[in-house]
Amino acid sequence: MADSSSLAEKSVHAAVAAIEIYNKPDFKYREEAFSLLMCNAWELLLKAKWLLDHNDDLSTLYETEVDPSDSTQRRAKLNRCGNPITFGATYLAGKLLEDANSGFGKKCDENLKGLIEIRDNAAHFMNKDLNFGRRVLEFGTASLQNYLRLVTEWFSFDLSRYNFFLMPLSFYHGFESVVAASVANYSAQESRLLSYLEGLDADVDDEESDDDVGAVTMRIKTTLTRGKGDDAFAFRWTDDENAPTLSISEEDVLKNYTLDYKRLTAQLRRRYRDFVENMEYHRIRKSLESEKKYCIERLLDPGNPKSSKKRFYNNNILTEFDKHYTKRKKT
């Protein structure tokens, strides 16, 4: 029998499959296959969250209809083989959107709508140019970011062993130079899809509440720099301590530390039913700030060593707070 944990794990497998398919070289059905698998991952994740909030009662997922034998009663609606029909992703997303403590905000919802529309058009969706590919990449990358945040927040899964990213098409095609063509240049069906995606992207104001940390789309830019000097050298991963050192910028590090104090506190408030922003919370947080895997500190003005500092937190810190607080669970 399905429960919230097994559904969440199955969801992760679908998401990983979507990434692997998308990142295959010269794969001709890239965008269509990704949208199909990623929508499946989202539906499984939303169902897992629903069961988590309803004490793993599978019957709460069933669509119902009036019982023909007793009009005062309702029964589960059945599919062609006699199994109960469950709520779909859009219904579950709408219910989570109504819950201010779910962590599923309007940006996540708009992104999911776009991904579902791409999936629904997949049978007729012709990936004939890079403009289409670019839009799917932008929605897909944001979808993965939203997914990774929520599956970690809801189920405390350690996904560090997976590479949750999509290889930018620019790595192969230089497609950042592509100019978006007028929708008039496409068929009526393709034009409507592109117009719909553009509308979703414009619907959500970037100045919404800081608590809505999701993304509708993400712009991708890839830059490759070749060393031109005689002293330039190649590098590769190695355990040799005498090998040349590879340096990364502070901006690269901050990509994994997305929570400042305000966002961390807001996320904990959504996550736990007994969370209070009090001295005990500050004691726990400060005890974790000394470990770089949970927290880093940076200067607000990197060029000024006397500048004030700000702390940023990694999502992995949530697993430590799980030891001190009780997760929300609907009855």
Write the layout of secondary structure elements.
Layout: H1 4-22, H2 30-53, E1 64-67, E2 70-76, H3 89-98, H4 106-120, H5 130-155, H6 170-173, H7 188-203, H8 250-254, H9 261-271, H10 279-288, E3 295-299, E4 309-313, H11 317-321
Antiparallel strand pairs: 1-2, 3-4
Helix pairs in contact: 1-2, 2-3, 2-4, 2-5, 3-4, 4-5, 4-7
List keywords for this structure.
two-stranded antiparallel sheet; 331 residues; 2 domains; 11 helices; 44% helix; two-stranded antiparallel ribbon; mainly alpha
Report on this model:
The protein has 331 residues and is mainly alpha-helical. The protein has helices at residues 4-22, 30-53, 89-98, 106-120, 130-155, 170-173, 188-203, 250-254, 261-271, 279-288, 317-321, and strands spanning 64-67, 70-76, 295-299, 309-313. The strands form two sheets. The chain has a two-stranded antiparallel sheet. Strands 3-4 form a two-stranded antiparallel ribbon. The model is unreliable at 171-175, 177-184 and 206-210 (pLDDT under 50).
